[in-house]
Amino acid sequence: MFKQLSARRRKKGAPAAKEGRQGRVTVSVHPLFFALGAYFLLTGRFFVFLSVTAAALLHESGHAFYAARIGCRLNRLRLLPCGAVAEGSIDGISLADEVRLALAGPAVNAVCAAAFVALWWLFPETYPYTDVACYASAALAAVNLLPAYPLDGGRVLWCLAAKKKGEKFARVLSSAVGKVFGVVFLGLFAASLFFTPNPSLLFFALFLLLGGLGTKDCRYERIRFDLSRELARGAPVRKIALSESVPVKRALAFLERGTLAEFDLFSAEGEYVCTLTQREFCDALAFVSIYAPISACLTAENPENTEIPE
Prior knowledge:
3-stranded mixed sheet, about 50% helix, 2 domains, alpha/beta, globular, about 15% strand, 10 helices
């Protein structure tokens, strides 16, 4: 339901981390997730449980999609009693991209909720079948915007505070606000015991109080497309013409699975400079910041092009 990304950051001027090993996305399920599902099943609300889980997975797909746009990929997904968690380190990205990454999940939920409302307007008879999914999506979007770390709103607060007062102040502030909200939700759970017990409030409170249930040291890995299978059958080559001053981040958006990319680089005057193959481009990502010009990939062994903008 709520994501947790590691906020460890790379200092300016430090080399970008080398790409991690390639592999499929791993999915793990917390035992209490099954326990919560059984509780909802026994209380006749299993469809609610499924709807919230689906909304949480869509939420995490929003984070994963934007991460892919800036050259990273999800390498682990966890199903917790408080929802789904996309795990990753966001070392090396700017504060602006970190904010966009945090807001990507709530944005997906908000769009889904709006789509359901539009569906009701066009086909009112669908309301009884989609109302729970709509409310779950809207609730996830709203709750994740709370300025409580490690929720998405808390990460936005962290970024804004880090920009103004530094990372040490941001860490203290976001942690304190997160714990305050954790105590509030713990109180709401206690109040629910006098009416209809809501264990989700308890798990959510623990999620905030414990900072994500121990999911701090995890990673998003750099994208590096493995074309070995495609090349065995034959893969199309896609030519992209770019100015040599275009940032690496922009070039990453042109990479597609199953297609081999080649970048024809041109100077500001429109003169052809050279062709950069996809392999050369991906190899350079281990040393070049995504905010550096793509021309830096031609001299990737030089670590001076790794400064991260604010």
